[in-house]
Amino acid sequence: MPAIVPALVVLGIFALGYRYYSAYLARRVYGLDPEFVTPAHQRGDGVDFVPTNKHVLFGHHFTSVAGAAPIVGPAIAVFWGWGPALLWITFGTVFAAGAHDFGSLVVSVRHRAESIGTLARDVISRRARTLFLLIIFFLLTLVNAVFAVVIANLFVANPAAVLPVVLQVPLAIGIGQYVYHTRSSAFLPSIIGVIVLYLTIMLGMAFPVSLDPLAATLGVEPRTLWVIFLFAYTFVASRLPVWVLLQPRDYINSHQLFIGLAVILLGVVVGFDRIVAPVINDVPADSPSWFPFLFVTIACGAVSGFHSLVSSGTSSKQLGNEPDARYIGYMGAVGEGSLALAAVLAVTAGAVGSTVEWNNLYASFATASDGATQNFVQGVAGFANNLGLPISVGLVFATIMVISFAATTMDTGVRLQRYVVQEIGEITRVRPLARNMTLASTVAVVLPLAMALLPGGGEKGYTFGVLWQLFGTTNQLTAGLALAVVAVWVTKNRRNPLAVLLPLLFLLVMTTWALALNLVEFVAQDQWVLAPLDVIIFLLAVWLIVEAAVALRRAVRSRGETTDPHQYATEG
C-alpha cells in the first residue's frame, strides 16, 4: 500500500477530532471560562509562574511531551503489524489522549496549578495524594532513565549529531534572553534558531565528537559517560527559570516537528514509498501478546500519563488564558499522535525497500526493541533522500530531531521530579527535602542515573528489554489514574463524565493486566530489582483505584447538591 494513503486518513481524523471533539470537551465537559484568572497571573513569579503566549507555550508543552517515546514505542509496536499500531495511535489520540491531556491541564489550572498528585488529594482523598505521588515518582524515574539511554545510544551511533545538539543550548539561551528582555515575539528568533541549528549539521559532520578515547582511558563504555554527562546537564538545566532555556529551546524544537513531518510526508509523496511491512504480522510463538502489550508499548503517541505531569507541572503555571487550554492540551496530543504516525511510516516504508529486509529487522521482539530508534532515523533519512538530501546528512538531521525531543523531555522530567520530591518532603515533614532545591534536584537526578546504569539485559541494560515494558505500563497506569482525577472533578461539577470514564476503564484494565503478566515474567527471569518494583506499583495502583471509585460514587450521589469548592465562582 502507498504510505501516503494511511497518512492522509490518520491526519484527516486528527483534524476532525480537534475541530469537533475538542470543542465538545471544551464546552460541555470542561466548561472553559475566558474570564477565569489563571495561576500564571495570580501567582506570577518570573520563574515558574509566567503568563505565556499560547504559541510559545504550545512549543514548550509539545516538545516536553513529545520525547523519544512516541518514536520508539510505535517503532517497536509495528512488530505486531502496522494496522493495529495505527488504529491505536489514531483513536487513542482522539478519544483518550485528547481528553486526558486537555482535562489534566484544566483541572490543574482550576486548582492553583497544582500537580496531578496534589490534585488527587483535593479531588479524591488525602491518601490519594501520597499514593499518586509515589506512582509518579516511579514513573519519572523510569522516564528519565529511558530517555537518557536513548540519547546516549544515539550520540554513540551518530557522533556527527553531537555538536549541533550541544550548540543548540547557547543558541536557545540567547533567544530566551532577547525575547524576555525585549518583550518581543519569539516566532522570528526561533525560526532563525532552527536555520542556524541545521546549518551546524555540516560543522558536526566535519568535527564528529566521540567519547571512545576517554571511555577507554576510564575503563567504561562511551554510553555510560554520555548518560552521566546528560544527568549533570539536566541537574543544572532543570533549576533555571523556564524562560532562560526551557521555553526558547522548546519553541525551536516545536518547529522541528513540522519540518520533520513535512520531510516525511513530502518524501513519501515524491518517492511514492510503499509500506512493505504486513498489516498484521505473524509473530514468533514466544513473543509477547499484542493484547495487552500493544497498548503499553505505544504509550506516548496514543495516550501517556507523563502528559498529565507536564500539563499540571509546568504548562498550567504558564497558561495565560483558560480557553487556550484546548489548543495547548488537545492539539499537543494531536501533535504527538502525528509524530507517532511519522514513526510508523519511517520504519515500515522509509527504512527498508522490501518485505524481506523488514522481516530481518523485526525477526523477534528483541530485535524490534533494540533497533527501534535507529530504524526511525534510517527511515527519515530515506524520505529526506527522496527530496535530494544525501543519506549522511539525513541521518544527522533525523538524529538531531530525536535527541532534541528526548533532551527537552528529560529537562522537564527532572524539573517535575524535583517538584514531586519536594511534595513528598512536605508530606513526610522532611524540611531539607521540601525546602532545599539542591537536595531535591540531587535526588531527582541520582535515582534515574542509577537505573540507567543498572547492569542486566545485554549491552543496552534494562532500557530496551524489560525496562521499556515496565515504563510503558507505569506510564499508561498513570494516565488512567489522572483520568480518574479528572472524572471525579467533572462529576462533582455536574457534567457528563462519560468522555473521561471510557478511556479510563480501558487503560486501567490494560495496565493492571500488563503489570500482572510482567510480574510473572520478571520472577521467571530472576529480575529481583524489577519484580519488587512491579509489585509496589501494582499495589499502589489498586489502592488508588479503590480510592477513586469511592470518590466517584460519592460525587455521583452528591452532584445535585454541591460543587467543587475550588470551582470558579461564575461558572455554570
From TrEMBL:
Its main location: membrane. Keywords: Cell membrane, Membrane, Transmembrane, Transmembrane helix. One of its GO terms (cellular component) is plasma membrane. Residues 7-348, 366-514 form the CstA N-terminal domain. It holds the Pfam family CstA. The chain crosses the membrane at residues 85-109, 130-155, 161-180, 187-206, 226-246, 258-277, 289-310, 330-352, 387-408, 437-454, 466-491, 498-516, 528-552. GO terms for biological process: cellular response to starvation. It is a multi-pass membrane protein. It is found in: Cell membrane. Belongs to the peptide transporter carbon starvation (CstA) (TC 2.A.114) family. This is Carbon starvation protein.
